[in-house]
Amino acid sequence: MLGRSPQSYGIDPWEISFGFHGLDSLQVEHLRAAAQQAGLSVSHVIRQTAKSHAGQWLSPQDIDRVVVGMRA
């Protein structure tokens, strides 16, 4: 994932290399979709996820919790 160009997923791969060893294309797509549905910036969701998530493995449920918290 991190070796691909930013155009591969529409998100700068270095922007998401903040310690999530378990982040793959499925989570990237979920990040983008969740942010768009909530009307939030993908970059902002990524930064907030990095701040609020304690582990190294990120699940779609973790992303959803961050997005819900940002909308509140």
UniProtKB/TrEMBL annotation:
Its EC number is 4.1.3.-. It comes from the Bacteria. The keyword Lyase applies. It is an enzyme of class 4 (lyase). Keywords: Lyase. GO terms for molecular function: lyase activity. This is 4-hydroxy-2-oxovalerate aldolase. The gene is mhpE.
